[in-house]
Amino acid sequence: MSYSIKERITHITERWWLTEPTFFAVYCSHLLSENEQMKCVMRTGERRIEYNPALAGMLSDEALEEYLKVECLHILLKHPYERQPECCKPESIAIAGNFVVDQNYRLCHFECPKAHEFQLPIGESFEWYALKLNNLIGKSGDNSDDSWIPSDGKQTLEGDNDEGPSPKDSDYKSDQRWADYSGLWEEDMLAQEETNELIRKLEASQSWGTIPGHFAEMVVATLKVKLNYKAILRSFHTSILCSRRRLTRMRPNRRSGFQQMGSRYELASNILVCVDVSGSVSSDALSTFYSATARFFKYGVETIYVLPFDAGLKELITLKKAPKEVKIEGRGGTNFQILFDYIAKHPHYDGMIIFTDGHASEPKVPQPMQTKVLWICDCEQNYERHREWMRKSGKAAFIRE
Question: CA angle 58-70-221, nearest 5°?
Fold first, then answer.
């Protein structure tokens, strides 16, 4: 009996539930989708794992499982969502990321370049490899062909006179394969924090499975990077725009021109910003909340709707530009439920951002609810205290100046 690639992956991940808890948890954090157009077997980004059914169908079950593991390791290292050196070509980033995975996890079936094949040392960082490879590609003078890739032992990173092993043509000759591999890689602060939360749980349970100790330590070390709430706000606005993407023949596709449909994004200005003005929130925090709200005008939003609240809702404020001063009323208790009751009656809002210290009862979220929710706490301490229940209704972050 022949199985589809999706069925084969399902069988693999069902086994992971018992034998590979780390890989199972990472896999469950992303959606699995089919992509017949890409030239690589499998790739990750935009919170999904894509596979080419024709190319993946040529792999044995053992090889397919290893390819899937590599994508999970990229997610744990957050390669698709951060740490991408500026101005690096997509193939440089893709190969550099696989250098790191290959050097830290034993691979038997996954076809990827080796650092020594490019006369590069082992043990360097993802960024270091990406910049070195990018310099090599830039020296070729023509990025449309494969002249930058060492072949037949005649061309290496350091020059024609260097000796050493070279990559197999069949493995690395296709430029497009590696360009497609990192085609979904783009900075995403929300995806980073979701991955960080997953890493914290893995660290607490110590359920790393076959991932070696030094690799686990490298993954945990990435948690030292703090949230940038300004980038979180920008990312939240971008995620709303992406959800309003429309295909059109009137614009060229950025990769293939007019051969495929391009994208048009409707300007999402229906963002409701709810500001906690209860007595437990300091005046400094409120000032920061309104300052953060004003940043949306820098991201192309024309109108912001601000709804102050404590135990009850205050008057809805419509902002067309950043306010010079804000009059604060209320300073009573806090009730989050009234916000979700309000959004249930006003579903036209694309996103709801809640600035708060988190000190109130967990609200009941109406289902279904299309409005995206982002909680932003006034400090890291309150974020750590409330993030678990906040994440049941949306994303969570904290302000750290």
Answer: 180
367 vs 251: CA distance, rounded Å = 36
Q: Which ranges of 81-188 does DSSP label H, i.e. alpha helix?
A: 90-104, 126-140, 169-172, 175-181
In this predicted model, what pLDDT tens digit does every residue of 294-315 receive, in sequence order?
666 655 566 778 898 988 998 8
CA angle 100, 101, 103 (to 5 degrees): 65
Going from N- to C-terminal start, the domains of the chain cover 5-224, 229-398
The answer to whether 193 and 222 are in contact (CB under 8 A) is no
- What single-letter DSSP state applies at residue 122? S
CA-based nearest residue to 371, from 342, 338, 336: 342
Which tokens go with 335?
């009730």
Q: What average pLDDT does this structure show over 237-242? A: 59
Which pTM was predicted?
0.56
The answer for residues whose C-beta is within 8 angstroms of residue 62's C-beta and 6 or more apart is 108, 109
Which fold does the domain 229-398 belong to in CATH?
Answer: Rossmann fold (3.40.50)
Confidence at residue 394, expressed as pLDDT on a 0 to 100 scale:
86
Cα angle value 204/380/378 (rounded, 5°) = 150
Task: With H, G, I as helix, E, B as strand and everything else as coil, classify residue 31.
Answer: strand
Q: Specify the 3-state DSSP secondary structure of 158.
A: coil
**CA neighbor of 195 nearest in space, from 175, 222, 168, 213:** 222
Three-class DSSP category at 207: coil
Among 47-51, 132-136, 235-239, 369-373, whose mean pLDDT is lowest? 235-239
21 burial type by CB count under 10 A (0-12 exposed, 13-18 middle, 19+ buried): middle
User: Residue written as tokens 């690589």?
Assistant: 40
Peptide bond into 368 cis (omega under 30): yes
Q: Which residues contact 276 (CB under 8 A, 6 or more apart)?
A: 289, 309, 310, 334, 354, 355, 356, 357
C-alpha distances in angstroms, 118 versus 12, 96, 146, 163, 250? 34, 11, 14, 10, 43
CA angle 184, 85, 374 (to 5 degrees): 55
- DSSP for 298-333? GGT---EEEEEESSSB---EEESS--S-------S-
- The SS3 of residue 105 is coil
CA distance 234 to 218: 28
Buried b (16+ CB within 10 A) or exposed e, 105-121: bebeebbbbebebbbbe
